[in-house]
């Protein structure tokens, strides 16, 4: 589903990704772990197409598409979802309005019929319920005044409504207490654990992986994947730290 | 009203397009609205003159004891579009303004208000939002004058401008002249650009650049017209504002964004292949 080959990317002329390669197949969940500053979030942003992140070499194919040739909104319409480490507050735009515009923009991009207000509300309510999010929060401005945990939950509600092919979740576990972690973990499994979908989980810690069991674990350090393995690698990292494993 | 053509030395004309002014000078006398004690009036002003026109509209409002005036202004048309409101507040009266200036090209748009709080306990609240593209200039000049005995005056001004291009200009000038000692006069002014983080967030959810900008700008103008009591009228003004925003966005999209919009349908394979 996703094939990253020898990817180099820089911000403000500083190279952050230095030849990263990774292949993700449908049905797989990959965890990417690594020390601070390794380039984990940069990888997410480069795949999402954030302005300011310049790809200097390498390629990324998403299905049959050249991902890097697409604008960010086209990547979303093609089925890529980027879960933000720090979801952005948008005053004056209600969650419902935002989600409906998102979903319908993507549907238009795929030549599908937009959902009516009623159809959409039904879908949004079901997703909010599934993630134990207060219905009232659907009416509030996007992420404004939400706690860290509520913002992450809201990201998962968005993911549930948008129903992407590939989710790249950047530290979705940060800022969550134990209960919220379980709810979010269950959400990821429910929405994305399917034979035709895939997930890249970017995380610092093992604890999210207790809820969302990865098929593969990769260590990202110095802008490259330095080690790959199965779930046991995450436990080894937790025990011995990055210094030993990445060395 | 002075018959002589104004100059830049006149504070109220400092940022105006005086050539355009000269072409229509002298202008008609101000529309006088004298609001009897204890009553209310509201006015909705949509200034959407043709792009090559010069539209100058002056209002003089006298609020008698306990009277209220609510003005909603959409200032969007003309080579020069200028709306001035001069308000005199007697005891316990209230003036409310919700205004938006939306301009592009080489337009000059202005809202000039003067609040004369001449007796105690009167209040005023002004909210002005501007969105400017092209080489447009949008100016809000808001003078609040509180007379010596006009105690307990409460006057507030909130002025925000959003620039869509580096060549647009916003002027925001609250001017306070306070002779009483027990008053509240709050004023705030900001000039900014669309939040790049918010735009990327919206894009990452599939919303194209032009739609994302429109969504953020609608939110920015937000509640300015919410106070229009008549539903049909409010819908009319909001639709006019929306139309103005879309026209501006259309002409201010960068080349790259146009290309992005054009290639919105990546050639070839469908979802099934992923």
UniProtKB/TrEMBL annotation, chain A:
The keyword Chaperone does not apply. SUPFAM superfamilies: P-loop containing nucleoside triphosphate hydrolases (SSF52540). GO terms for molecular function: ATP binding. Keywords: ATP-binding, Nucleotide-binding. Residues 2-247 form the ABC transporter domain. Transmembrane segments: none annotated. Pfam families: ABC_tran. InterPro entries: ABC_transporter-like_ATP-bd, FeS-cluster_ATPase_SufC, P-loop_NTPase. It comes from the Bacteria. Belongs to the ABC transporter superfamily. Ycf16 family. NCBIfam families: sufC (TIGR01978). This is ABC transporter ATP-binding protein. It comes from Sphingomonas psychrolutea. The lineage of its organism: Bacteria, Pseudomonadati, Pseudomonadota, Alphaproteobacteria, Sphingomonadales.
From TrEMBL, chain B:
Residues 248-274 are annotated as: Disordered. Residues 255-274 have a biased composition (Basic and acidic residues). It comes from the Bacteria. Pfam families: SUFBD_core (PF01458). Coiled coil: none annotated. Residues 33-220 form the SUF system FeS cluster assembly SufBD core domain. This is SUF system FeS cluster assembly SufBD core domain-containing protein. It comes from Sphingomonas psychrolutea.
